[in-house]
Amino acid sequence: MTKDVMPAHLFNQTWMNKHILLANYIKSHPTEVGKVVDYNAETDLLYPFDFTAANTGLTAEDIEDTNRFSAWVEKKLVGNNCRYGVGGYMEHRTIYARSVHFNTEDEPRRLHLGVDIWAGAGTLVYAPLAGHIHSFRDNNNHGDYGPTIILQHNLDGLELYSLYGHLSRKDLAGLHAGMKIEKGQQLGAFGNQEDNGHWPPHLHFQLMFNIEDCAGDYPGVAKFSEKEKWVKNIPDPNIVLQFPNPE
Predict the structure, then answer these.
(1) Residue 235 to residue 162: CA distance in whole angstroms
(2) Do residues 62 and 69 touch, judged by C-beta distance below 8 A?
(3) Where are the alpha helices (DSSP H) in 34-170?
(4) Helix H segments across the chain?
(5) Are strands 46-48 and 84-87 parallel, antiparallel or unpaired?
(6) Among the listed ranges 54-58, 182-186, 218-222, which one has the minimum average pLDDT value?
(7) Could you tell me if 150 and 167 are in contact, meaning their C-beta atoms sit under 8 angstroms apart?
(8) How many CB atoms lie within 10 A of CB 213?
(9) What strands, in cross-sheet order, belong to the sheet with 111-112?
């Protein structure tokens, strides 16, 4: 017996509807959407990090040495009077050459699926939407997420998942699947390089409509050739973050 397959035009229409429903929910429920970090649009500047091949100021030697990479990030933030750095949604990055974690037998993974928020270790992280703990895990590999929490949300019938990667290891203590999380509740903090997969301190924030059978982990970097597929399932996190375009 052959398995029924949804026609391509209906499949695309389904994902398009989810994107529209999410946008409509955010627009019509402004009080139900909170912060992810303590960003103040009136006082805080955002530095737009670019980790594509166009960034010639970041050398391979900088990227390979986490201390040098961290110093480079901090210098950019301090030098531009920015509290946070931000960027990365669907960005074709070169920095993943630093770890074999992103290698595959054919095309290496270089497409960044979420948004990174860069700031110092210990920067607090909050749940922007009410929901519950779907899963969590310490993805303790070089270049990986490190401590990761995934929340599940029900937005007037629309199922949405949010992922928080590169946290502090202590943030996983006491969690359990199904734990209720309120909007604005502190989830944890940016981990240091010993905790967070050996990266400069930052948060990987990502949204997904369908998490499939993943638990405590979900791809945050994929093959660039598969971008069209990932865009359907992973909306731009800025629909929740609501950061202005950094200048």
Answers:
(1) 11
(2) yes
(3) 60-64, 66-79
(4) 8-28, 60-64, 66-79, 227-233, 238-241
(5) parallel
(6) 54-58
(7) no
(8) 4
(9) 91-92, 111-112, 221-222
Alpha-carbon distance 241 to 37, whole Å? 9
Q: What is the 3-state secondary structure (H, E, C) of 163-197?
A: EEECECHHHHCCCCCCCEECCCCEEEEECCCCCCC
The Cα 153–Cα 131 span in angstroms is 5
Residue 71 DSSP label: H
Burial class for 108, CB neighbours closer than 10 Å (0-12, 13-18, 19+): middle
**Which backbone phi and psi does 172 adopt, to 5 degrees?**
-85, -15
CA gap 241, 34 in Å, rounded = 8
The DSSP symbol for 38 reads -
Report the alpha-carbon distance of residue 95 to residue 65 in Å, rounded: 11
Both tokens of 157, joined, read 């019938």
pLDDT band at 99 (very low <50, low <70, confident <90, very high): very low
What are 138's two structure tokens? 């310490």
pLDDT in tens, 156-204: 999 999 999 999 999 999 999 999 999 999 999 999 999 988 999 999 9
Distances (CA, A) of 227 to 92, 111, 177, 231: 10, 7, 30, 6
Q: What is the mean pLDDT of residues 5-19?
A: 68
198 vs 39: CA distance, rounded Å = 25
* Neighbour count for residue 212 (Cβ, 10 Å): 8
Contact 174, 147 (CB under 8 A): no
